[in-house]
Task: inverse folding
């Protein structure tokens, strides 16, 4: 028997009103497997997002509660922080406005939630599922381990694609995306790594979410996000280099050091003292000069876009 659950779907949206119907339709197809609470944070849109949501609310199904909120443009991460506080579900999942769920997503989630309650896996903070693009191609790799952390998944196990996280609500509400100096964006991984220090994730090789990236989205313009939000990224890579790096792949170690140098340059904060490990410190010192030169070229290139 599948345990009935309540799931809170969090969607930050900025001028994406026309895309929200796809996400709503995917929720309709999943309504038999959960009580659904869909929370939308309109991040200062100038399109018809509010009117579109109001139309959906007038025709909403009994098992789907739509809650619309508005904030002056503060960015995606602040929107999610605010929505988490308002969520009342047993589980919480972020779903961007240009993403939507597979037809059997909540059936898959509910089965894992049932196992979680029976097995009392109190050490996990989230279930981690696969994402695919519209052509059905997995946006990453199959999981190698059933229980791991997000840090180990990406820095030790060779993952390089996107995943869909479904959080245990009581644990998720203890954490926020940390934004530095009034910046509007930081990688979600910074919060995940903080959660990794206390809990783990359960990996499930099932696809629950479909992604359709937009030209103006964060993913396609990540270099612009680096330029606009360097403080948070500086802290993120600094924190990575303070981890125990045993088992981290060579490529990921270099990735972290090179990006730490980039954001050291962007924030004008250079510190080898905040790096743990003799090898990491040696590589930082070895790469700092060529890294700064490359960073200058990166900034010039990004400003010309």
Result:
């Amino acid at each position: 028997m599948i345990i009935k659950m309540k799931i809170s779907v969090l969607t930050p949206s900025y001028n994406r009103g026309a895309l929200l119907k796809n996400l709503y339709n995917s929720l309709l197809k999943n309504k038999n497997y959960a009580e659904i609470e869909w929370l939308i944070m309109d991040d200062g849109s100038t399109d018809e997002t509010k009117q579109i949501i109001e139309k959906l609310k007038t025709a909403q199904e009994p098992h789907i509660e739509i809650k619309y909120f508005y904030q002056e443009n503060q960015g995606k991460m602040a929107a999610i922080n605010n929505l988490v506080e308002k969520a009342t579900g047993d589980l919480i999942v972020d779903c961007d406005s240009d993403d939507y769920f597979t037809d059997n997503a909540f059936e898959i989630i509910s089965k894992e939630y049932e196992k979680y309650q029976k097995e009392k896996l109190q050490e996990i903070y989230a279930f981690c599922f696969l994402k695919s693009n519209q052509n059905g191609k997995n946006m990453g790799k199959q999981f190698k381990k059933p229980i791991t952390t997000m840090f180990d998944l990406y820095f030790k196990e060779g993952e390089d694609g996107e995943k869909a996280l479904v959080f245990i609500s009581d644990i998720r509400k203890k954490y926020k995306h940390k934004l530095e100096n009034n910046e509007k964006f930081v990688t979600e991984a910074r919060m995940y790594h903080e959660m990794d220090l206390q809990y783990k994730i359960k990996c499930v090789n099932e696809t629950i979410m479909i992604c359709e990236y937009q030209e103006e989205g964060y993913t396609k313009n990540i270099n612009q996000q680096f330029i606009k939000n360097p403080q948070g990224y500086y802290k993120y890579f600094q924190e990575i280099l303070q981890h125990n790096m045993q088992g981290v792949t060579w490529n990921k170690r270099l990735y972290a050091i090179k990006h730490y140098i980039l954001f050291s340059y962007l924030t004008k904060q250079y510190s080898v003292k905040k790096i743990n490990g003799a090898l990491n410190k040696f590589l930082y010192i070895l790469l700092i000069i060529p890294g700064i030169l490359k960073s200058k070229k990166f900034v010039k290139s990004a400003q010309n876009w």
User: Anything to note?
Assistant: The chain has a mean pLDDT of 92. The beta strands are 6-13, 35-42, 64-70, 91-94, 99-101, 124-133, 147-148, 163-168, 200-211.
